[in-house]
Amino acid sequence: MYPTEFEYYRPKTLDEALELMKTVEEPKVIAGGQSLMPMLKLRFYEPACLIDLGAIPELKQVKLDEGGNLRIGAMVTHFEVIENGLIRENAPILASTAENIGDIQIRNRGTIGGSICEADPSADYPPTMFVLEASIVLLSKEGRRTVRIEDFIKGPYETDAREDEIAVEIIVPKSTDQYHVEKYARRKADFAVVSVAAIARTASDGSIEELRIAAGALTDGPERLKSLESALKGKKKDSVDLQTSISETVDALTPISDIHGGEEYRKYSLKMMLARVIKELIE
Amino acid sequence: MMEGLVKVSIDINGKKYTDDVEPRLLLVDFIRDIARLKGTHIGCDTTSCGACTILIDGMSVKSCTMFAVEADGRKIQTVESLATDDKLHPLQEAFWEHHALQCGYCTPGMLMSSTFLLSRNSDPTEEEIREGIAGNICRCTGYINIIKAVKDAAGKINAGKETE
């Protein structure tokens, strides 16, 4: 299968890339291409011009800024997210999340920026990014802006990025709280049927001091489960009615319903997964 | 140069191949049709089966899911790089001994994924081998013999290193 014809550009600097985004006809950015190339082959996208970000060194860096936030270049591969010492130390949940992505070949080539900008509702990073309260840095000739992940992902395959903007960096606040990230798929390399990311901190008296939970594989994209968080936060772990709180939250959600799992099955599985994840975190 | 073509130069198994190509030319087709190395197979053409797996700068990737232009200036290893002269690579020998192939269509990809795995982990457990070939589909063997072969090859490569 072949994509439609396109012109190919491989800028060596961000400035050059931003200029191209403004001047060429119908540009589409290619990062690792592990989602985009299958889409191009299926001709879901037929861009006139492809801008390859693979030759811009500054997009491949991982840094820790003065505020203790990780700054991860958009072209950092999933493989590097797993292996990188700074990420493992300052946001280990992110490294664990990357381990769940696709298969090794995809992790070797796919990038964190590409995956987030693809905004697939069943993708692995978004629930984790939601609990980490990460942000995306967008750059264009007009300037730079930083968008919270929850505002950036607007729906399935839809983001807040304008046509002339490039996502250059993911800002991830340091998080060394207890975490758990879980994904269920029939085969290892498949997209999630159900996925959950959560971080928690319990106080010495056994109360739940901090709890952030997000779910993926939902029809409208990933969601922070705020009603569940507030039902549990501040409570003693022995005094919470976990099953009722989980049921109330999940019954209000709309999981994807397709050949990989119907809505009822996915809701049931999500309840089981949430109960397991939360119990593990608070005990 | 014809309009719209891009000059691409790729080192494949130590030999440089240069041509003017359409930007949409898939890397696997550059390898098979321009470098004329037919060992790398096209299975699904949809990033699912791993038959087209190669190493680029030492990292395993599916060559149906990269454009040749993206590989310009880089170093590629295909299955043809494994055997030297008349001597099979220990992985190839182990695949033979353990009957790790039937039709053989997935084998080049399996070998390259296993090569990548052993380059990072010289003594993988069964689970690590399963994870290492999770991106490669085989419809004949049921994987058991492939796993045995990789395990055996790892042992032989390590034993060889010790006697050196």
Write the layout of secondary structure elements.
The complex is a heterodimer of chains A (283) and B (164).
Chain A: E1 7-9, H1 14-23, E2 27-30, H2 36-41, E3 49-52, E4 62-64, E5 70-73, H3 78-83, H4 85-90, H5 92-99, H6 104-109, H7 112-118, H8 125-132, E6 135-140, E7 143-148, H9 149-152, E8 153-155, E9 158-159, E10 166-172, E11 178-184, E12 194-202, E13 208-216, E14 223-224, H10 226-232, H11 242-251, H12 263-282
Parallel strand pairs in A: 1-3, 2-3
Antiparallel strand pairs in A: 4-5, 5-10, 6-7, 6-10, 8-9, 11-12, 12-13, 13-14
Helix pairs in contact in A: 10-11, 11-12
Chain B: E1 6-12, E2 15-21, H1 27-34, E3 53-56, E4 59-62, E5 75-77, H2 90-97, H3 107-120, H4 126-132, H5 144-163
Parallel strand pairs in B: 1-5
Antiparallel strand pairs in B: 1-2, 3-4, 3-5
Helix pairs in contact in B: 2-5
Describe the structure in your own words.
The complex is a heterodimer of chains A (283) and B (164). Chain A has 283 residues and is α+β, with helices and mostly antiparallel strands. Chain A has three domains: 7-52, Uridine Diphospho-n-acetylenolpyruvylglucosamine Reductase, domain 2 (2-Layer Sandwich), CATH 3.30.43; 57-172, Uridine Diphospho-n-acetylenolpyruvylglucosamine Reductase, domain 3, CATH 3.30.465; 178-282, Enolase-like, domain 1 (2-Layer Sandwich), CATH 3.30.390. Chain A has helices spanning 14-23, 36-41, 78-83, 85-90, 92-99, 104-109, 112-118, 125-132, 149-152, 226-232, 242-251, 263-282; strands spanning 7-9, 27-30, 49-52, 62-64, 70-73, 135-140, 143-148, 153-155, 158-159, 166-172, 178-184, 194-202, 208-216, 223-224. A five-stranded antiparallel beta sheet of chain A has the order 4-5-10-6-7. The longest helix of chain A has 20 residues, at 263-282. Chain A is globular and about 60 Å long. The N and C termini of chain A lie far apart (51 Å). Chain B is an alpha+beta fold. Chain B folds into two domains: 6-79, Ubiquitin-like (UB roll) (Roll); 90-163, Orthogonal Bundle (DNA polymerase, domain 1), CATH 1.10.150. In chain B, 35% of the residues lie in helices and 15% in strands. Chain B contains five helices and five strands; from the N terminus they run ββαβββαααα. A five-stranded mixed beta sheet of chain B has the order 2-1-5-3-4, with helices on both faces. In chain B, strand 1 and strand 2 (15-21) form a beta hairpin. The longest helix of chain B is centred in the C-terminal third of the chain and has 20 residues, at 144-163. The radius of gyration of chain B is 16 Å and the shape is globular. Chain B starts with 5 loop residues before the first strand and ends with a helix. Classes of the chains: A alpha+beta (283), B alpha+beta (164). The A-B interface holds A 1-8, 10, 30, 33-34, 37-38, 41, 50, 52, 54, 79, 102-106, 108-109, 187-189 and B 4, 6, 22-24, 26, 45-48, 50, 53, 59-62, 65-67, 69-70, 72, 113, 116-117, 131-132, 134-136.
